[in-house]
Each structure stands twice: as C-alpha cells, then as structure tokens.
Write a structure and sequence with these properties.
Blueprint: H1 2-29, H2 34-47
C-alpha cells in the first residue's frame, strides 16, 4: 500500500510539472502585443 501511494504521488507530481512546462511553452510562443513591440522600439531609439 505504501509503495503504491508513493508511485501515485510521483506520477501526479511529474504530470503537474509536465503540464506546467507545456503551458509555459505555449505562453512563450504567443506573439507579443503591438504595444510591447512599439515600446521596445522607442526604448532602443532612446538608447542610440
């Protein structure tokens, strides 16, 4: 019983981590909003 319990806990933990990584990957692949791109351009121009 104890071994099965820890195996289930480990599977849930691995699933949670994998799900979080997949959500983070999807979020990072979304394009940036135009406001963010424009702000970055203005900042680069100010630095020059």
């Amino acid at each position: 019983m104890s071994t099965a319990f820890w195996i289930i806990i480990a599977l849930v933990a691995v699933g949670t981590i994998a799900g979080g990584l997949l959500r983070m990957r999807a979020w990072l692949q979304k394009p940036a909003p135009p406001e963010v791109i424009e702000a970055a351009r203005r900042r680069d121009e100010e630095d020059d």
